[in-house]
Amino acid sequence: MINRFTSFVKANKRTFLVFLLSLISLFCFNVTKNGIGPEIFGWLRLWKYTSLLILFVCFYILLLKGKRVILANIALVALLILLLETILFFVLGMPSALKKDFSVPNLPENHIARQVGMTYYPDSVYHDIKINGTDTVFDVHYSIDHMNKRITPGFDSTKKNYALFFGCSIGFGYGLEDNQTLAYQVQKQGESINAYNFSISGTGTNHMLAEIKHRDLSKQVTEKDGCGYYIFFWDHLYRAIGTMTRYTEWLHLAPYYKMENRKLVRRKLFKDGRPFISDIYERLYQTNIVKYFEADLPLRLNDSHYDLVTEMVLETKKEYQKQFGNDKFYLVIYPNYMAYTPEQMQIFKSYLKKKKIKFIDLSQKIVYQGKYTLPGDAHPNAETNELMAKYLLQETKKL
Questions:
Q1: How far is residue 245's CA from residue 299's CA, in Å, rounded to a whole number?
Q2: What pLDDT, on a 0 to 100 scale, did the predictor assign at position 240?
Q3: Is 323 in contact with 216 (CB distance < 8 Å)?
Q4: Distances (CA, A) of 249 to 86, 89, 130, 206, 254
Q5: Phi, psi of 195 (to 5 degrees)
Q6: Model's pTM, two decimal places?
Q7: Could you read off the pLDDT of 156-165 as tens digits, one per residue?
Q8: pLDDT score, position 188
Q9: Tens of pLDDT, residues 298-323
Q10: With bands split at pLDDT 50, 70 and 90, how would you rate the model's confidence at 66?
């Protein structure tokens, strides 16, 4: 066996030499890559692609000469994929890649960052500025209390009812001052309501469930009666299942839930709760094929995703009932850009009805664009929150 291999090497010594040189080139590439900052420059990536192409060509030739037909075909497929990746690299203008850190912080299991994921520092004020060219889109402050939630100014101890708000940047009031949020407008327009804003920018349904499971929110609320609102935005579906794009951009440390034996279970965070899938996403998301075709994984929503997300809402509702003693918890379908088809929304609503989750559909109240958004930003402006608060209180009275 050794003699046969030695003879094969001697007969193909030039190919083996080029193969060995390509391996050395890849090793040098990795050393260089690890020795620079957070950006892998285009010329470095070209170095890698060139080395890999030479490596696979040599590998394919050696397999053919060794009459390993099946392995040669597999190598050929890999070579063609690599060739497409290289061609698209030039089509995209030889872009750089980022060396992003997806590691999980070394924190105790009961730490809020491990349980809830992203949240705000307690007793803090965030100064947020967005500039578009020479125009300032907004220059605002977000006030956070000692329990990590956004402060709604104007609290009145004589009021008898509460309104809790969960959701993402829509509910939080991204780009707006404390007295311009949806929660503030509901408090202002409601006759006897104090509002509590538990929304966190960039989050999904999984964060809401983790948040209400992490601690008893009723201890922060002085009123005895009221309701909870989950301001639902269609992208929450993709965030809650941790698609490749959302995971790699900002949600690798988000709470991970899955269905096991028709039961919802918590499995740490996306990064360490589903390591195999997360690792695949990390390897794929900066490939030129993915970028050129603007691909995301999974490719489309299916019934299991609707079931999973609505199950999270149901568990949140149950926890709300347990903490506050009533079932007045509503999912509010907020107006959206057309990120879904009517059929998809119909399927989503069917799961809500099946699980007896009350919802308020505000999606058709306005055409969400133009005058309803911040200038130079897609988030709702203060006037939109004032209008949506009016609709929300009207629909709540009907229920």
A1: 11
A2: 98
A3: yes
A4: 23, 21, 19, 17, 12
A5: -105, 145
A6: 0.92
A7: 999 999 999 9
A8: 97
A9: 999 999 999 999 999 999 999 999 99
A10: confident
Burial class (CB in 10 A: 0-12, 13-18, 19+), 109: exposed
Q: Which amino acid is at 166?
A: F
pLDDT tens track for 74-131 = 999 999 999 999 999 999 999 999 999 999 999 998 899 999 998 999 999 999 999 9
Closest by CA position to 284, among listed 252, 245, 255:
245
SS3 296: coil
Answer positive or negative: Cα dihedral of 341, 358, 268, 255.
Answer: positive
Query: What does the alpha-carbon distance between residue 173 and residue 102 come to, in Å, rounded to a whole number?
Result: 28
Residue with tokens 């100064």: 127
Amino acid, single-letter form, for residue 96: S
Closest CA to 231 of 253, 184, 256, 198: 198
Neighbours of 82 (CB within 10 A): 16
Maximum pairwise Cα distance, the chain = 93
Count of other CB atoms within 10 angstroms of residue 195 = 26
Residue 55 CA to residue 234 CA, distance in Å, equals 45
pLDDT tens by residue, 221-261: 999 999 999 999 999 999 999 999 999 999 999 999 999 99
Three-state DSSP class for residue 103: coil
Show the tokens assigned to 2. 């050794």
Q: How far is CA 122 from CA 126, 147, 148, in A?
A: 11, 6, 5
Tell me how many degrees the CA angle 109-259-267 measures, rounded to the nearest 5. Answer: 15
Q: Which pLDDT score, from 0 to 100, does residue 264 have? A: 98
